[in-house]
Structures are given as C-alpha cells and as structure tokens.
Amino acid sequence: MKSIEEIKPLLESPKKVVITMHQKPDADAMGSSLAMYHYLIQKGHDVTVISPTNFPDFLKWMPAAELVLDFESSNDKAMAALEGIDLLFCLDFNALYRTKNMAPFLEKMDCIKILIDHHLEPQPNFDYGVSDTSASSTAQLVYETIYKLGDDKLINLDIAACIYAGTVTDTGSFRFASTSARVHRMVADLMDRGLKHEIIHQNIYDNFLENRLRFLGHSLLNRMEVFYEYNTAMLAIPYTDLKRFDLMTGDTEGLVNFLLSIQGIKLAALIIDRNVEVKLSFRSKGDFDVNTFARKYFDGGGHFNASGGRSSDSLEKTVERFLKAIEENEEQLQ
Ligand code: 5GP
Ligand code: MN
C-alpha cells in the first residue's frame, strides 16, 4: 500500500469518488466519511457517501448526513453511484467484509482503493492509504491527511464538526489511552477555526428518546452479570428486549462502557441477539487484549481495548461460549 500523501496527484483533476464505511456506522465512521466528503467536494470531485446499512438517528445532525445513501434501502442509487468510479475511499474499517452486503461488489471493483483507518491487522487489498493504530480515530487521520495534502486551508466548520464528533466518541470523550497530545492539539486547531463543541456533545449524547434510558435501567438491573473471579462483567440482551423497548439503530451504543465502571473489572462484554445473528462488543482496561480475544473466539476484531465480533449460535449458546472463553483466559484476566 502506497502512503496517503501519494494520492495528491490523483486529486488534481475531477474524479468520480465513493466514500464508504463499516456497516452500522458509528460517529467516527460517519464523521470521518463526511469530513472527507466536505473536503473532496471543495476539490471539485463528484462524491457520494454510501453506508452499507442504516445509521443511528443521533448522527443525522452531521452536515450532509441527509445525502448519505444506505446501500440496503437505496440500493439502486448506491449501485449507480458505484458505477465507473475512479476512487473508492474506505474509512474506519480495514477488511472488506465489514461492509456487509457491499463487500462482494467492492471486491470486484477495479478502481483505486484508498484506506484511512486505525484498526489492527489491515487486509492487503488497498492501493493507497494510512493504517495507524496509534490514532485516536479515523476522523483524526482524515484531519492529518488533509494537512499532509497541503489543504489545511480547506478545513471549514463542516469538516471540523465531523472530525470532532468522530474523535470525541472514539476517545470516550477524551479519556481513553489513545487521547494523545496530538489529539488535543488537533482539537485546539479546530476550536481556533471556530468549532462549537458543546452543541456537538448535546447532539450526540443528549438526543435519545425516553425508552432508551428505560432500556438502560432494565438492562443494568436485570441483564447484567458480574464474574468477579474473572474480573469480567457481561450484559446479554435477548431480542425480546430490543422489541419491548422499541430500540433503534444506535440505541445500544455505549452500553458496554457502563460495565467497565465497576471497580476491578478488566473485561466488559455486551452480547445482543439481533435476531439474524448475535453481535458481541468487548471493552477492556489495561493489558487485556480484546482484539485477539474477538478474533480468536468470535470471528471479529478491532482495537486492543475495544473490539467486536459475531456468532451464529443462539444467545444462550453464545453466552456459554463466552464463559468458556473467559475461563480459558483466566490468567490474563487477573
Ligand atoms: P463496537 O463494539 O462499538 O461495535 O466495536 C468496537 C470496535 O471493534 C470498533 O472499532 C469496531 O470497528 C470493531 N469491530 C466491531 N465488530 C467487529 C467485527 O465483527 N470485526 C472486526 N474486525 N472489527 C469489529
Ligand atoms: Mn473508529
């Protein structure tokens, strides 16, 4: 993979571009993609952002979010946008399968593929890009890419808002180990450019419906289990709960982090029956590597302290497998 700076000549004449992200995008996937969008349109390119699936309502405030095509519900438009593209930007994921139903199409496309990402162990099917696991977020890498391309004067308030949103969420509001001085310098620069951060926090964190908070209370009271011998806490959510509380995409985001607030807990797991498959989210504190854990047991991956996976077994069977997995990792969990 050639370095990201080397795309500079490719951007000198108008191109047909698609930007895509991982399925069920979070604020970093959407924020980095839309920041890239606002940058590339200023450079005169024909740009479409495609999400492999729908995305949470709490991201709809992002500038140009209304232009993002959902590959599932607007398939015809998305396929037309992919037709004959010159450049494909892949943001906030590094293995094509993470684009779900889009993956078979992306694999076949012979356009130039550009990766901007911070997850561990990238697949080798990209022509240009940056894969920096020390970066707090993909949004931060988009910001740095714009600088490297000599275009920092193009960082406007739309770009700043999108970048800030991706960074604040992926750093757990600037608390995770990935929150380097580099992150704070970037935010200072965005604020110098006029970024209003308070409204972004409100848009992301204070914008849910009552049922989501009720669901949170119910889950913590009735669905949480703590295994002190393994310093592990788990939330297993049956599909009936998702129905009962009428949850929407994104409503379970952040839930797993509550478990890590229990004294001594090193590993937190959120296991949700999404009906078609069971989705797992892992978070850890300190030296327990949940990227390897998710890869080994649940066909997933991610970062050292935050990862995800899936299972085609029932919720009960998946929980059983999880408990067996933590038993096997007892030593590392001490
Ligand atoms: P989340 O738990 O928020 O869904 O994901 C946590 C982190 O793990 C994110 O960086 C996400 O991109 C990554 N991740 C989640 N699910 C998967 C998966 O199935 N495979 C891989 N490789 N990464 C995942
Ligand atoms: Mn990310």
From TrEMBL:
The lineage of its organism: Bacteria, Pseudomonadati, Bacteroidota, Chitinophagia, Chitinophagales. Residues 245-328 form the DHHA1 domain. Residues 16-167 form the DDH domain. This is Phosphoesterase RecJ domain-containing protein. It comes from Chitinophaga jiangningensis. One of its GO terms (molecular function) is nucleic acid binding. InterPro entries: DDH_dom (IPR001667), DHH_sf (IPR038763), DHHA1_dom (IPR003156), Oligoribo/pAp-PDE_c-di-AMP_PDE (IPR051319). It comes from the Bacteria.
